[in-house]
Specification:
The strands form two sheets. The protein has a ten-stranded mixed sheet, with helices on one face. A nine-stranded mixed sheet has the order 3-4-6-8-10-12-14-16-18. The chain has helices at residues 3-15, 26-41, 57-60, 112-116, 129-133, 141-149, 375-383, 388-404, 410-429; strands spanning 85-90, 93-94, 107-111, 154-158, 166-171, 178-187, 192-199, 204-213, 218-225, 232-241, 246-254, 258-267, 273-283, 287-296, 302-312, 316-325, 332-342, 348-357, 362-371. The chain has one domain. It is globular, with a radius of gyration of 21 Å. Helices cover 22% and strands 37% of the residues. The chain contains nine helices and 19 strands.
Length: 441
Amino acid sequence: MLQVQKDALAARLAALPPAPGPKAGWLADARAQAEVQLAGQGLPTKRDEYWRYTDPAGLVAPDAPAAARFDPGDEAPVFDAIDRLKIVFVDGVFDAAASDDLTLAGVTIERLTAAGADDQHWAAPLYGVLAAQGQQPVARPFASLTTARAREGVMIRVTGQAARPVALVYEHRAKTSDAVLHHCIKVEAGASLTLLESGPAAARFAKVMEVDLAEGAEFHHIRVQGRDHDRRAATHVFARIGAGALFKTFTLTANGRLTRNEAVIDLAGPGARAHLAGAAVGDGDFHHDDTVFITHAAPACESRQVFKKVLMNGAVGVFQGKILVKPVAQKTDGYQISQSLLLDGDSQFLAKPELEIYADDVKCSHGSTSGAIDETALFYLQSRGVPRAAAQSLLVLAFLAETIAEISDEAVAEDIRSRLEGWLQRHAAGSGTASASGSAR
């Protein structure tokens, strides 16, 4: 580890307040172990292989760079029309007054600090465990940092069919807020949960979510990352998927100066399935990085990765995705596609797809493409009387449709489509005055 990494870590930790909660017990032990792991890693620089396409400086700096709040006007909050149990965090702090009662049949929800006071809590064998295991073969120091210093989080245990989704709403108010959250979710055998996440969260946001799915469980995760343009975020999802269980996650990202979303998925039981999808739309000084590592560690498992980005005015998109198939994982079905649509000549898409296969009876494929909008299709629509801006929006939505198709709940999928349409309309309306810094959002 370089001295610059050690110094950066020391400064970052000094700027973060100590995590609240008990000073002894399983939570304190997990935090201490994560901090030891972090001390051996340091914080990343662009010299690290998995940060070569993304400059982590804004995430490493001791203090969060200022980020102004985005004013949505009279636009309704995302998922507002969906019946859900809402849990609100403001700049990373739980807001009891804005949150719903945490009672839901078949689901137990507790705050992190309250759970840590219970020596026999169900989360004791889970908190920090999947995050620690996910550090091999690639170190993920921001996950270690989050486990060690998270001030808030929710522990969700699902024992039945949740009657309605649980929604985590992240509001941003302070210009230099630095939020650190760690969530744990355990879905027992045959149970199911839909989890919604939305909002910008803070000027800088670090989050870990650990998900443990027992045999036959289902977990549906839909996330919309907020539109505050100057925000920065480093998020991690670690999942262990049991036999016959289903894990599905979709993320929509619109705006944001720097977003790094990492997913580390372990298909641990026969017949486990994992579907990961993401749609990103960015303008100007927008940098979006999806980094995914999926391990097939059992036979007859299925994984799908579908990631697409629409970039303009110099925006940058990154995809790093790997499928590892272990010798025991015969009859693996792995699919990975990453694509970008570049709406000008200044934007970039950087991709690093990987397959590492040690079994011989498998079906795995991966592909990555980048290109401009189809001028022939654009001309066809215009020749039918569709204005150019509207025609371009239609083609962009068609390009992103494969990612949205991964959302099982049609009401949620329709809400996502409407958000994308609104974003495209705003950018089309502001295209005459938008600068290279992405001022029209």
